[in-house]
Backbone:
């Protein structure tokens, strides 16, 4: 008769120990983040859901989605997490207004305008014409419409402008008018804003532990680098073995990875725990940018339509749609090997769809 398994069997204890350690590290990270000023703007935690129809369609690993399109502030999006820390810093500095910048259909500008409205601050948005698109829908609908609904003042700059210098010039002008401006960098991508995605890692891992799911990969769109930098730091802080992959939407691979790594190092330093960042953990695939930032690709169009029809989910043409295109193609190519679970971070932005209504070739009424 075989002997009964010992309660000290390492095969039983190892997963339990790992789980306890992971939970303890998440609590430790939460306590560290609690030392930073934060104003609650988002509906957090955001949902974590399986995309089983997409998974079956692709025939690869089970794909999940972290719904940061559901953060709640002005139709949601990833910038809300960053703005919780940035706007708190603005209030700490007694700001009377905020200044930020982005491309014409900037999701970040929309969420910043909404956050400012919620907190009673004036908002000034500088929009850079990065595409040269003169279409009326692109220039006045979607995020641009919502910027103005939230009360932001808008002004345009030509593509290639030094937007940081433009914001500094406006700040000087407002200061001369007895305002106290607070500048928020494009995408909210600095060490303060990146804390929002350090915190997102903790939230995601705790959710996964609650439903007993282990993620092999996390995939997301990466642009101004703050989201990916925060995720890199968060994963390092909790010693996670989730492989992180950013799908680039604007810059070549070498440039994108350098931006992310540099910001991750500065974010880790800002966190103040002595955490070191491994350069090898910063990985971006920039094969899905297409003709340029904010410019549609066939793959993005197909991916957005596929998810709308398989999962009832909306993605934007600039960030999440191109990230999704990358995910789908990499699954089909077998890039993720024998991975069991992949999570895609949905960074939101569906409002931008209304700035690109013609690109999907939809038939309209059939009778």
Residues:
């Amino acid at each position: 008769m075989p002997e009964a398994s010992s309660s000290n069997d390492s095969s039983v204890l190892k997963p339990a120990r790992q789980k306890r350690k992971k939970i303890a590290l998440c609590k430790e990270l939460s306590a560290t983040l609690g030392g930073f000023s934060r104003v609650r703007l988002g509906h957090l935690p955001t949902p974590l859901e399986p995309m089983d129809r997409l998974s079956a369609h692709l025939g690869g690993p089970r794909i999940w989605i972290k719904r940061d399109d559901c953060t709640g502030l002005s139709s949601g999006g990833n910038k809300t997490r960053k703005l919780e820390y940035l706007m708190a810093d603005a209030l700490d500095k007694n700001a009377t207004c905020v200044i930020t910048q982005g491309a014409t259909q900037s999701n970040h500008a929309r969420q910043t305008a909404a956050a400012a409205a919620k907190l009673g601050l004036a908002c000034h948005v500088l929009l850079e014409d990065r595409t040269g698109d003169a279409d009326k829908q692109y220039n006045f609908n979607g995020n641009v419409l919502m910027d103005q609904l939230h009360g932001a003042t808008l002004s345009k700059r030509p593509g290639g402008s030094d937007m940081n210098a433009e914001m500094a010039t406006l700040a000087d002008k407002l200061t001369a008018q007895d305002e106290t401006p607070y500048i928020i960098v494009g995408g909210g991508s600095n060490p303060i804003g990146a804390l929002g995605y350090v915190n997102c890692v903790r939230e995601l891992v705790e959710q996964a532990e609650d439903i007993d799911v282990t993620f092999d990969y996390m995939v997301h769109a990466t642009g101004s680098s703050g989201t990916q930098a925060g995720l890199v730091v968060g994963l390092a802080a909790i010693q996670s073995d989730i492989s992180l992959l950013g799908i680039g939407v604007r810059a070549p691979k070498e440039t994108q990875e350098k931006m992310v790594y540099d910001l991750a190092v500065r974010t880790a330093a800002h966190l103040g725990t002595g955490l070191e960042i491994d350069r090898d953990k910063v990985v971006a695939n920039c094969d899905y940018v297409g003709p340029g930032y904010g410019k549609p690709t066939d793959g993005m169009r197909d991916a957005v339509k596929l998810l709308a029809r398989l999962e009832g989910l909306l993605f934007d043409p600039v960030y999440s749609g191109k990230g999704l295109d990358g995910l789908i193609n990499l699954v089909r190519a077998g890039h993720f090997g024998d991975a069991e679970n992949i999570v895609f971070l949905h960074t939101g932005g569906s409002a931008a769809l209304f700035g690109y209504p013609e690109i999907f070739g939809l038939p309209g009424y059939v009778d």
In short: Strands lie at 48-50, 62-67, 97-103, 122-129, 153-158, 181-184, 217-222, 243-248, 284-285, 341-346. The CA atoms of residues 168 and 183 lie 8 Å apart. Residues 1-7 have pLDDT under 50 and may be disordered. The first strand starts at residue 48 and ends at 50.
